[in-house]
Amino acid sequence: MKYQPPFVYGDTPGAPGIHNADPDADYANGDPSIGQEGSYIPCEAVEHVMRELVHLIDYSTQTPDHTDLEQVRKAIAWMIANTVPVPATAPVTVYVRADGNDANDGTANTAGGAFLTIQAAINALVQRYAPSQHLLTVQVGDGSYAGAALANGGGGHNIRILGNITTPGNVVIDGLVGASAIAGAALCSQGPRLLRVAGVKMQGTYGLLAQRGGAAILDGNSDYGVCTGDHNRAESSSNISFEANYRIVGGAVSHFYGVSNGSVGCNSRTITIVGTPAFSAGFAVGTISGVVSSQSCTFSGAATGPRYLATANGTIYTNGGGANYFPGDSAGSAATGGEYL
Predict the structure, then answer these.
(1) What are phi and psi of 143, to 5 degrees?
(2) pLDDT of residue 272 exceeding 70
(3) pLDDT at 219
(4) Is the previous residue joined to 192 through a cis bond, with omega within 30 degrees of 0?
(5) 204: closest CA among 188, 185, 230?
(6) Strand, coil or helix: what is 311?
(7) Confidence class of residue 43 from pLDDT cuts 50, 70 and 90?
(8) Are 185 and 213 in contact (CB under 8 A)?
(9) pLDDT above 90: residue 292
(10) In angstroms, rounded to a whole number, what is the distance separating the alpha carbons of residues 8 and 144?
């Protein structure tokens, strides 16, 4: 596309594709008081601009829509998001809302600016930013959302999912909803990336899952709802740790589960148990060389099921916390090389 100067009938074009001897001629408004005629606008000045914008919208995978007057902005945001990532120079926040749209760019906490899904927000941050020392935050508004994953990739991103710290039950993440969750986990981290979590309620097959050398840290008040698997599962040389107090509001197979050299570490935290949730395998499970390490925690409330299970060279370490350290209504057990210390 090129600049289209005013149309002048009979002029010899000063350049191909225009209708004016001066390819850089200015437009002038008409002024009847002095008898000045306004400039004539050539059709190309309108048509070419519209066609260029429609091509931009098409390129960004949108369908041109006469009712949406933000498609050019969205197209520009899409192009930025799909360029080569660069390190963030300061902390970055993108937004997710129940009334958002994944075609948005996530940079504004409005229905017209926020993403609809947590996965779209994570994907955008990974695409836009190379790993750096700055925290990338996904601010999630009250509502219910599908599970999401910071999946295995080439960069060590540090991303925080931040919901409602005061009332985490208002931000429900369900790993059994949608297609973005890995293994039915509400939130999953795969190596070499770090996923931080705060202010959400996690439920599904798993609550918080770390795999393939990934790491996850619960660093703000959160709730664990009903899970058909484990609340916190670290496997394949991954780890999960805790930097904040939190609540358990639903049962699971286990609350802490370390397997295949995965480790779960929770020390000096207050864990509030609401109701009497059941843990069928044991509140804490270490198996196949997995580790659960927990000491000096305060468990407020009661649970049913075995207190622990250490098996297949798994280790559960409480620093001498005793057989009744973990919640439960039946004794824990150690077998086949498992140790409870």
Answers:
(1) 150, -175
(2) yes
(3) 97
(4) yes
(5) 185
(6) strand
(7) very high
(8) no
(9) yes
(10) 60
* Res 263 pLDDT > 80: yes
Q: Which two tokens stand for residue 294?
A: 């927990």
Is the separation of the CB atoms in 212 and 236 below 8 Å? yes
How many Cα atoms sit within 13 Å of 13 on the Cβ side? 8
- Which is nearest to 326 in space by CA: 282, 262, 277, 291? 282
- Cα–Cα distance, 247 to 269 (Å, whole number): 11
- Cα 189 from Cα 46, distance rounded (Å): 50
CA dihedral sign, ordered 140, 145, 146, 147: positive
pLDDT reported for residue 192: 86
Let me know: does 96 contact 116? Beta carbons within 8 Å: yes
Centre a 10 Å sphere on the Cβ of residue 306 and count the other Cβ atoms it contains.
Answer: 20
Joined together, the tokens standing for residue 196 give 């931080």
- Report whether pLDDT(154) > 60: no
Separation between Cα atoms, residue 323 and residue 308, nearest integer Å: 9
Give helix 71-81 / helix 43-59 axis angle, nearest 10°.
Answer: 50
Give CA 67 to chain center in angstroms: 29
147 or 154: which carries more pLDDT confidence? 147
Question: What does the chain come to in residues?
Answer: 341
